[in-house]
Amino acid sequence: MPAFYRGIAFPFAKGTTSLPNAATDAALIKQSLIQIVMTGRNERVMRPEFGCNALRFVFENNDDLLGELIRAEVSATVERFEPRVVLLDVLVTRDTEAAQVVVTLEYVLVATKRQDTVEIILPEAR
After folding, report:
1. Looking at the whole model, is its pTM more than 0.70?
2. What CATH number is given to the structural domain containing 100?
3. How many other CB atoms sit within 10 Å of the CB of residue 6?
4. Peptide bond into 11 cis (omega under 30)
């Protein structure tokens, strides 16, 4: 079955043919979702509106409100910048001992109708 989506793998690395490593379909979209969530708004010079402000909550109190703020921010951002997926749920798990927040995205790939998840760790939420 041919790939629906092709692109450069993240993190960027040289492949065996001196060209960048490639990624297709599920792997490419999973990497895209990670980049969207981990890129802050105004971080990209030519696309200041791109990205998510989830990392701005890193120094907030790690409570129920933090989880809801992150969930709302991630949901809105993914729906805006990743049209290749239908977002089913955003789960925010707070780990106060490890001082981190784990964001789990559950989604369906539009092209293949396959359900998938990706887990993103936001460090040092207090």
Report:
1. yes
2. 3.10.450.40
3. 11
4. yes
